[in-house]
Amino acid sequence: MVPPFPVPTPSPEPSAMPGHPRLTELFPPSLVAARMPRIGEWSPVPPAADRGAWEGIGNDTRDRVLRAAASTLQAPWPSLPASLFARFARDGDRWDYQAPAAARRERLGRAVLATAMSPSSAAFLDEVMDGVWALCEETSWVLPAHDFRVLGSHGRDRGLLPDPERPTLDLGASMTAVLLALTDAIVGEELDRIDPLVRRRLRREVSTRVLRPYLRRDDWGWYDGSTAKLNNWNPWIHSELLLATALTEESDEVRGAVVSRIVQGLENYLAAHPEDGGCDEGPHYWWRAGASLFECLETLTSLLGTDAGVFGHPLIRAIARYPLATWIGDGWAVNFADGPARPREMAAAVLHRYGRRTDQPEVSAHARALRGGADAAIPEAGGPFDLRRISDALFDADWQAAGPAPFPLPVRSWLPDTQVLVTRAAAGTERGLLLAAKGGHNDESHNHNDVGTFIVALDARPLLIDAGVGTYRKETFSPERYGIWSMTSAYHNVPIVNGLGQPPGPDFRAAAVAHFCDGTTDELRCDLAAAYPPEAGLTRWQRTFRLVRDADDERIEIGDAWGCSAQPVSLGLHLLAGGEVALADGGGRAVVSPPAGRGLMLGWNAVVFTASVETVPLTDPAFTRVWGPAIHRLVLTARRPATEGEHTLTVRPNPRRVSRRM
Q1: All residues at 6 or more sequence positions from 248 whose CB lies less than 8 Å from its CB, including other chains
Q2: Terminal Cα-to-Cα distance of the chain (whole angstroms)
Q3: How far is the C-alpha of 70 from the C-alpha of 72, rounded, in Å?
Q4: Where is this region: Disordered (predicted)?
Q5: d(C-alpha 239, C-alpha 598), whole Å
Q6: Which of 116, 426, 523, 650 gets the most CB atoms within 10 Å of its CB?
Q7: Where are the extended beta strands (E) located within 465-587?
Q8: Beta-carbon contacts of residue 216 (< 8 Å; ≥ 6 apart)
């Protein structure tokens, strides 16, 4: 099999510049103009006519593809009436439209693969033609929740439906563009034999709806941060624009202009990126942030035939390590910000290549561990279908040949710019305690009001938890966001003072953040007072997170020392638990028990705090898939709130399973 990308000659002197790489200096417009290949001269995937490449795919993978593509041949294509698009504006639902739109795209992608794997099947090629035509006939490729007209943003009059004369360039549009571009690259010649108009229309629609609006308009906040926070949208959309440009844009002038604009857009993203490589959107979004950034650089360097040392840059290398830093084990990850505690969309093949290109074997080992014994390219049923990532993995010989590996599981990862610490009892094992804690601020991407929160896992099972985020609706990204329970301080492991949690905004942040470690202890300290509104009356709230590696007393300590300008009316500590919580007779102790395995023993000062346990019922599938029908909240309430005070919560492994009441 051939590699997914022609590998350029590396620079003999990898960049060691501090800060972010200056991509506009490494890949200036003059270099782009001189080296940008003409259309048809470069592709990351072989065409269907390259029978040696496609016949080299394993029989099991081939059979899965052909069965999936054949299963829908006789079914009508999913319908997308205007009323489905209008649901978002009317009642906030975004999935009634997105689900059939995604089903259309998955069906086309599977038909493309099936055509290349079974070129004698006219039915699969007709399926491709039908899919291309259906997508080209859609009024818009934008997702309802992102359309400027539906949102009434960027000077548009608010309406129910998208305006095809002024398309919005979002993730939906770019994903459709790259799907059509890969369709062109893989089976374009076969489509020409049916009718050349299909391919011509495909290219025209990609250019009209995506490439030219990107080049000619300046109202894309995700490009430069002018109207929206720079986050995963920037590298995600750019990774798809690069491929769409390389594979479908026929004008050499436009090709060069789009690529040079993308280089500047990526530099904007890197300039805003923390130097520690952290992703304040959390590990769920890293796969469309850091991973998409790598795909951008991989495509760019392959197109231009030089990597200019970019993969040796410290920031690019640091970004690759984030999935390792936030991995708990057994499918669980540290899920600060939006995202589930059990991530689903993890493109392990991309991470494997990222580790190879940055010469970090532990990164590639993590990718191999994520894959396990699963198919190297095709996701399991129900998972996301991404033709770009599937085709890359199919023709990555190193990835196909790579065997399983254990997770590296570093003993600690400290991200000083992102202000996140993840530390475990011992390196290379899921056994024992793990502590994840954060400082940060309340204007992070996909923010929750959670400065000073923490997660505790035992034997790779989170038990003091971050609940995550529910199914996205209109309210999720609106002024109503912080009325959603899972975004609030009250449902994170942070203090509540005078009945007040933390507000959103960049000024509400941790101060005096510092990390300390020695052979037996990891410690993170921060002052949370500035994360609360003035009405809370806090002058200080020093929180100390400590993991103690003691063979006779392995434990985590959460120390709080506070001061108030006046005696508070109320003061509470909230702990969200992902297991059953049993309060001990006599007070001051509780056990958090998972469905199987060891639990946690919690201890606190019962003279200072009373304790109660509340059940939080869950009905949203985004929560129940991870936690089941309920989680629990342990509330410690100060008996006599004092102007000054100190307290330490201790967390230890419970050597045995216990009943709910002791």
Answers
A1: 39, 177, 180, 181, 184, 202, 203, 206, 207, 211
A2: 61
A3: 6
A4: 1-20
A5: 43
A6: 116
A7: 495-497, 505-509, 511-517, 521-527, 538-548, 555-564, 571-577, 580-583
A8: none
